[in-house]
Amino acid sequence: MQRRLVVTLAILAIASTAVTGCKKKSEEQVTPPQSKVSSATSPAAKEPAPSATGLTGEQLFKQHCAVCHPNGGNTITPAKPLGAKAMAERSKITKPEDIVKVMRTPGPGMTKFDEGMISNDDAKKIGQYILATFP
Prior knowledge:
- The protein is an all-alpha fold.
- The termini are far apart.
- It has one domain: Cytochrome Bc1 Complex, Chain D, domain 2.
- The protein has six helices and no strands.
């Protein structure tokens, strides 16, 4: 039992480090160079529009979610995979907005993805990708 707890904590530490590392890397990669030009030409535009990342749902999923949910699975809680049918039966998750709610206020073991980390438009793209990809 104690060994299992140690292994679980080690996995959480590794996953946490990976997610944090991805976040820093993604902020550097995703910010388009024209955002500086935009703010210079339009004083009201300080950051690109929420969907200005230009990334697909698949790319966003790989960047933010795949560490803990490879191929729609769940490394933290294996009994809770991302399959659309399983999520609908287990948690009444049937649309992208439901997935966004979970991302914003997750349960134990899942990283919270607030609007500062993932815009609502990008979070919705992730939700659409999950429902379309994992049956």
